[in-house]
Amino acid sequence: MKKSNLGRASVAVMLLGLGAWAAGGASAQESTYQPWSNTTQAQSEASDQKLQTLVTDLNTLIKKAEAANAADPNFLADLKKLAAKYPVTPSLGGSGTVFLYDNFSDGNYTANPVWKVSAGSWKVDTKGATQGLSSTIGASSSNKISGNDVLKAILGVQQQQAPQSTYASIYTAVPIANTFRMTMKFVSGNKSGPLNIGPYQGASASSGYRLVYQPGQGTGLILQRIVGNQVTQIGSYNAPVNLEDGKSHELMWQREPTGKMRVYLNNQQVIIATDTQIQGNLDGWLNVNQGGSYWIREIKVVGM
Fold first, then answer.
1. 77 DSSP assignment
2. Rounded to an integer, what distance in angstroms lies between the CA atom of residue 58 and that of residue 79?
3. If you average pLDDT over residues 188-213, what whole number do you get?
4. In whole angstroms, how far apart are CA 53 and each of 46, 60, 79, 83, 304?
5. DSSP 8-class letter at 120
6. Where are the domains of the chain?
7. Strand partners, 224
8. Looking at residue 11, what is its pLDDT?
């Protein structure tokens, strides 16, 4: 893994276990080994669910005891502190639940769902081969954006000393489960700058994941984690990727309960990596164009 300060990371943006197995002893005459299957993931999910249920039930009992004045307030306060150590993450839905979908066929990005432009300019083209959510800006003088720029891409505050055309960002604040599958169909018009996409966490996007497409570069795709003021590269496709042929291409990115992430380009797996640092539900999706011409024809994010 490569770590760098956010201000030194390439391009902008933004922006969840335990298992054991044992085999019985075997005599010299007869083997007692059984076919092995990896149940770690299922055991982890079941343990997490039981813990969540326990904490939820405990909080319910605390509220009842408080209302009925049925226990020492100091004791209840201690129970509250215990429960607070294991926060309950609200369920956003299971596999197949649609968190985000837009094909921009309605001709706008301002409704169903609501996208907000926080830097540069975006529009929806409804005709021709380049239809979709589009952004075209001049070639960037640098492929680096500071940590403040990443935060401002969410907060919608322009950096006064930076040119308006440095990058263009647009986001939608929709709840997304920590395990998801994203598919995006898009067209790349030139090799002038990268496209950054990914979910973010927190109103100020203090953490999240991003997938960076770098046209014409030796490393065509990079998968990164953002936590605080650090960017960590957790995966990459170390070969050029050139999609500037006027055709629509599809990126598919999924994150499994174990933290394993897989990225596919046009149905071919190009990145596989595991990261468990960012836990809990996510708060939205951010797209950033940093110098190129892109048309996003469709984006869909569903639960795994």
1. H
2. 8
3. 91
4. 11, 11, 16, 11, 21
5. S
6. 2-16+93-303, 40-84
7. 210, 233
8. 31
Backbone angles phi, psi at 268, to 5 degrees: -110, 125
Per-residue pLDDT tens over the stretch 18-75: 222 233 333 344 444 444 444 454 455 456 667 767 877 888 888 888 888 888 888 8
**C-beta contacts of 42-47 below 8 A and 24+ residues apart:** 43/17, 43/18, 43/19, 44/17, 44/18, 44/19, 44/257, 44/258, 45/257, 47/17, 47/18
CATH class, range 2-16+93-303: mainly beta
Helix ranges (H only) for 157-242 are none
pLDDT of residue 80: 82
**Tokens linked to 224:** 């990164």
The H or E element containing residue 222 is strand 221-227
Residue 100 has what pLDDT?
A: 97
Q: How many residues does the structure list for the chain? A: 304
More confident residue, 34 or 279: 279
pTM of the entire predicted model: 0.69
**Backbone phi and psi for residue 19, each to the nearest 5 degrees, phi listed first:** -160, 155
